[in-house]
Amino acid sequence: MILSKFIDELPILPILKPRWKDPFHTYYEVNMTEFKQSLHSELNDTTVWGYEGSYPGPTIEVESGEKVFIKWMNNLPDKHLLPVDHTVHGAHVDVPEVRTVVHVHGASVEWESDGYPEAWFTQGFKQVGPYFRKQIYQYDNDDRACTLWYHDHALGITRLNVYAGLAGFYLIRDHRERLLNLPSGKYEVPLMIQDKTFHKDGSLYYPKQPEKPVPELETSIVPEFFGDTILVNGKVWPYLKVEPRKYRFRLLNASNTRFYRLKLDSGQLFYQIGTDGGFMQHPIGVKEITLAPAERADVIIDFTNLEGKNMIMTNDAPSPFPTGDPPNENTGTVMQFRVTLPLSSVDTSVIPAYMMPLPKIKEQSASKKRYLTLNENTDKYGRKIMLLDNKHWDAPITENPKLGSTEIWYLINLTEDTHPIHLHLINFQILDRREFNVEKFKKERMIHYTGPALPPEPQERGWKDTVRANPNQVTRIIMKFGPYTGLYVWHCHILEHEDYEMMRPYIVIR
After folding, report:
1. Residue 95 in domain
2. CA 72, 78, 80: angle at the middle one, nearest 5?
3. Which among 474, 468, 490 has a CA at the least distance from the CA of 292?
4. How many domains are there within the chain?
5. Those residues with Cβ within 8 angstroms of residue 455's Cβ, 6 or more apart along the chain or in another chain
6. DSSP E strands: which ranges in 38-113?
7. Distance CA 408, CA 200 (A)
8. Alpha-carbon gap, residue 62 to 408, rounded angstroms
9. Residue 285 domain boundaries
10. pTM for this one?
11. At residue 2, what are phi and psi to the nearest 5 degrees?
């Protein structure tokens, strides 16, 4: 079933209004429900899950330093929309089939409000997971201005809950951002990019079995999921009408597994001004931007002097990344821009030459180095299982950084895929990536480097919370742990990997 491209307009995501706001705190309530929504005008309405009756959820906009309280409420049905695999840890038959817990991705937050995967809750908080601590989460928003996002994080079913629609933007603003005079208001548009596959009746397709089915199992985890259509802000291949002026776009890859390498078919540059954790020091003009699942890029596109032109944002990232199949004409198309609106006023916004200082964390300040492997094994049914440091989720905690200490983590990728590794609580900086001999490592447990250390790509030189750990490479990241102590997680953000064990708890200790 092939759907026409560029016949639906890009949805502009609404901004959520708080229930209560005074000088000291802001309070929101966010309800999760099941509903039908049109994802393409040639498709029947699709049953999805969403926050506040919309997929993607409404954008939550807060000020840096604002104390925000959010009550995330689960009003979803008892039966899951998608096939649950009860052999997956955390999703066995002894827990309710539908469970949720919300994580604000990239936020620096106390652990009880971080959305720990076993802090799940059911409808009306009737049942809760072993680590559930509170109904109302607290976000102190001590970060600089940045593009975060919120999504579900329930152990064993994150891939299904996010695919069903549980994701939205969470933007932090600050004074410095306003002084930069960037495109703003209707000239600033967050873009959430995802891939899905539909049944003929418009319902969401998600595989029940891996390609080699296991006869005795009802449903089964798949090693990765690639949809055959691309959606932006919940519409399949939309178009956006723009004025001939500068626009700011916040790009987010919210797909389960798919990577995107984005380009404009007009050959134009993206002026990238920010990474996951906020502004870079200087903008860079780039022809393409690679985004692994959960990565963000803050960019400006200049449509000045392009009246009447259309341009397409394309994707040429292979799946799986980096050595899989190239995209086809469908998965290679993201959305269209139409420069058809008249200029409503003179464009006085700028692409600043300098945004903010970005002091490098010095390697000498690290008190500990950790060597952590990314592994691919098989389970008792012969299915792929991905592990961090060759340990399962419930193995004893081995990563226990001290509050205020700086560490360097060596991510040693022994698999054939690039894994986007995400750490909760903190932002880090990428030091370098370096080729090494994988076979020798597997035999001798020693790193034999086979090439020079490669600095991070220009588009990654900023604060990050998710890093692409490439095959045959050791990726080094450096970070300072704090300002909170407690229980957090680090994991691969390919959701099919995360759900099948590629996630580990870590604890920040006093």
Report:
1. yes
2. 90
3. 468
4. 3
5. 432
6. 46-51, 57-63, 68-74, 102-105
7. 49
8. 31
9. 185-338
10. 0.98
11. -105, 125
Q: At which residue do the structure tokens 């680590």 appear? A: 131
How far apart (Å, rounded) are the C-alpha atoms in residues 261 and 209? 29
The tokens describing 149, both together, are: 């996002």
pLDDT tens track, the chain, 510 positions: 789 999 999 999 999 999 999 999 999 999 999 999 999 999 999 999 999 999 999 999 999 999 999 999 999 999 999 999 999 999 999 999 999 999 999 999 999 999 999 999 999 999 999 999 999 999 999 999 999 999 999 999 999 999 999 999 999 999 999 999 999 999 999 999 999 999 999 999 999 888 888 888 888 889 999 999 999 999 999 999 999 999 999 999 999 999 999 999 999 999 999 999 999 999 999 999 999 999 999 999 999 999 999 999 999 999 999 999 999 999 999 999 999 999 999 999 999 999 999 999 999 999 999 999 999 999 998 899 999 999 999 999 999 999 999 999 999 999 999 999 999 999 999 999 999 999 999 999 999 999 999 999 999 999 999 999 999 999 999 999 999 999 999 999 999 999 999 999 999 999
Do 293 and 419 fall within a single domain? no
* Same domain membership, residue 37 and residue 82: yes
Residues 138 and 254 in one domain: no
CB-CB contact of 257 with 293 (8 Å): yes
CB 348 within 8 A of CB 339: no
Q: Please state, in angstroms and rounded to a whole number, the distance separating the CA atoms of residues 340 and 309.
A: 7
Q: Is 308 found in the same domain as 190?
A: yes
Out of 338, 373, 391, pick the residue that ends a domain.
338
Please state, in angstroms and rounded to a whole number, the distance separating the CA atoms of residues 436 and 411: 12
The CA distance from 413 to 411, in Å, is 6
In a domain, 211, yes or no: yes
With 0-12 / 13-18 / 19 or more C-beta atoms within 10 angstroms meaning exposed / middle / buried, residue 61 is: middle
Residue 175, helix vs strand vs coil: helix
- Given 174, 195, 211, the domain boundary residue is 174
Exposure of 251 in the CB half-sphere (CA atoms within 13 A) = 29
Sequential DSSP letters for 322-355: TTSBPP-TTTTEEEEEE--SPP-S-------S--
The whole-angstrom separation of Cα 73 and Cα 89 is 24
Two tokens at 396? 């004893």
Indicate the residue type of 313: M
Examine residue 128 and state whether it is found in any structural domain, yes or no: yes
Tokens of 90: 């955390």
CATH code, 408: 2.60.40.420
**Chain length of the chain:** 510
Q: Are strands 26-37 and 68-74 parallel, antiparallel or unpaired?
A: parallel
Same domain for 466 and 386, yes or no, is yes
Find how far residue 8's CA is from the centre of its chain: 25
User: 268 lies in a domain?
Assistant: yes
